[in-house]
Model the fold of this input.
Amino acid sequence: MTAAPPDMWQEVFLFSVEIMGGSEVQFAGITEDITSFPDFTKDVESKAMANGGRRMGWTPEGDGEITVKITPIDDKVNGNGLFQYFHPQSTEDSTDPIKVLATRKRNKHQIIFTWAENLGDLATAGTATTADKQARRFTAKNVYITKYQESSDDKNITAEVTFKFSPFGKTGNANYKYESTESTAIPVKTDFTTAVQWSAF
Done:
């Protein structure tokens, strides 16, 4: 039986981050909000011709940015924070006390956001959804973390973390996709590895 569509997606979602070659780590439990989603723009601009006519020129699609607001609890990779994702260490520090130094290193990531009418039944953002249940998923790969800003404006430590990606990889394949369903399940995500980073979804 096909699911009845919800009035809107609201309130709760799953969110995961996966370092290239690493594991999918869930951050929904510390994520308060998506404070900005990409402004997808594929603009056009007219070009004046000598005869007074105009031709439309295409402007390439710009980079995408997503900012989430999280409540960081620790600085472990595979933990409850994203600071060591922003400053990758030569060797991941997973032994207490955790120490994260400023570095010039940058990792590539895959990020996934999932909404579903039976969200509580899904183990991760990248797991296969349930057949005949309404669901929607956004996935982006070759993603960099470009900003990490902590604050205590509401007397609680929070951090706004910005992810940035280009719409296409160097081979021309898409770096992001939306998937949605009301019948056939969305399949489990593809592991983000060097072998597939430039492949088609």
In short: The chain has one domain: 14-38+63-181. The CA atoms of residues 14 and 123 lie 9 Å apart. The chain has a mean pLDDT of 94.
